[in-house]
Amino acid sequence: MTMADTLTSSNQENFDFFNHYSLLSKERVILSYKGPITNVLLSEFGKDVRQKLQGNKKVSKKVFSIFMEVTQNILFYSKEVNHFGNKDKVGTIVVVELKDHIKILSGNLIIRKSINSLLKKFDAIQSLDREALRAYKRELRDAPSEEESRGAGIGLVQIALVSDEIEASIQNMGDEFAFFALSIKVKS
Length: 188
What we know:
five-stranded antiparallel β-sheet; globular; disordered N terminus
């Protein structure tokens, strides 16, 4: 296949990198990453996010807090593992500055059998007002941790407390896994 054939090919199986680049360039993408998450990357990405949002300290602090929670969520709970090197957990994180808000998107693979429990926690969090969220966070802190949990859902509660809007979605990825995605909005 020649370069000309590649440029004019309408094969839908090809990833359209030019379209991807155009989408990234259209909005103010602060961070876009898919891959293994390590403590070193978490630290460097965190510095980048803070530095790029330094104009508004309150928003910067909120976005940084949420960023740390979603990356730790990937670090602790992702079921996708990088099979090269240290078997680090894999996930996706995007931080975009829009006209009147910052959007933080994150996603990672989870085990399908954990979907009901996760949705139940998420729905409970969504139903609470700010004061009830604070009380629920204290309750979770004092509760014994669950089998696969390192925080008993405290991270999701913290995100709900700091953000202006949080949405979750889950897409089945075969018999064993599903993709869990969070979309979080912080008004700027």
